[in-house]
Amino acid sequence: MPRGRTYDPRSTSGLTSDQLRSVALIPGLPQTFLAILENLSGKTSGALKPGEVANSELVAELINIISDDYNNLSSEYLEAAQRISKLRLLYSCCSLLLPDLKSKQISSLLDLLCKLINAATRVDKILKLEETLHILKLLTIFVSSSAEKIGDRLGEILGYLFVLSGLHKSSEGISLVPTNLPHLHFTQTQDGPRRESSCTDTSGSEYSDQELICDVDARKRKEEGFIEKEALTAVDVLVKKCHKKDIVSYWFIFLPDKCYCPMQNGISSLLSHPCKKLRMASINILVDFLNHSHQFLALAQHQEKDTSYTSLSSALALSMLNLHKILLTRILEPLGNTEYVALLKLFAAVGENSSYSRLSPGLVDRMVNSLMELAERERNPVIQVAVLSVFVSLAHGPNIPDLKLVSREMFRFIRPRTLPVPQSLVSDNNVRYMSLQALSVLTLLDIQMFIKNATDVKSVIDISLKDSDPSIVLHTFRFIKNFAKYLTEVVNVLKAGVMV
Length: 500
Description:
Elements: H1 17-24, H2 31-41, H3 50-54, H4 58-69, H5 77-97, H6 103-120, H7 129-146, H8 154-164, H9 209-213, H10 215-241, H11 244-248, H12 276-292, H13 294-297, H14 312-330, H15 337-352, H16 363-377, H17 381-396, H18 400-404, H19 407-414, H20 429-445, H21 447-452, H22 454-465, H23 470-499
């Protein structure tokens, strides 16, 4: 790679005649393959049509040629450049044809991909940056369109990706074995050892001035960062596209536990990585994983006493506790608004998919109070909205008994945010919308508290109904509806008691 060049792993064009002619210049290609290239490149000067490529057997021939290349790898620059040209051509073909390749070609392509990423994890690092990125990019496009074809190769692929992500203690390929899950009903939804830091910038810029002093070390760390980020992108696509049960059976690499995880770290470990891009990538992966795993996470069961045997339920509870600890620590640190909001999105996914009555006692209390402290410290309206969204998510899960213990603190926090801010401050009605929504949800937790604070509640209603913003008025009516619903239930219970 030329010095000073920033490589974009997604900078590709469609399959063109020029690309075919470029590959045809590589010496040593089989005559049958050259004939296919010549035939296709002579048809048009622009992008080729899918039917022309599919009928030419170009993909089948290309898969065999690339597979042979990786049987006897060389680090020579010319040979590496030739392999990259073939990978680019295969990527363009896959972009054009997947998921409509023939079944036999899909199987051959999957075998090739496993071979390629295995080569990318070699200890001698014979593959350079650009070649590894092309391999990961090719894997990502395959998973995006044909994830259902991966089958029992998922553990192998995840193992290689976690090595490339820097999560394994060595740079040797591993094959992960799924845990045996209890009998759970999963439905497929439509998708709408860690190395030293590869990036040391925590403020958002890529690399610090100190790193750039030593050009060789800086470039090495930069290249590792590109590979780690691209590997995590592939993991994220796997989580989004593969069947829920298949992904959840590898829960231990997302929420690592020492009794189940064969690696030194897991995705949740990256939440504290020095590189912001990797932290953000890990957040996205965990959000997607947690939203896949509601039924599985309900198995978690906190255990007070240590025993020689760690059950799946107690290991899962420990992993969830560890995730909470990491998140609660992260929001105490000085971060940018973008990262705070991403962490709060993860908090919401955790809260919505956790059964806190089965987790470590007092976890909800710590979580709610820490989030309220964050909102008091960081007054940006975007963060205020994100914190309130977490509270709404918590109340929609199976956590009402646990939330009741902190409902008064939540009421004191939420109520002032339903009211207009002084003119001297920057107003954002999104905060008021979400506050009214959170207040509405709070009526489900403790209607008696609203009755005791009737004066404050009436003040919120009076002020909000007179607001010039129609959305404020609408949210107020929704609050009144919920308030009236649960108040009526209390009255009916009292009536029934009197009649008895």
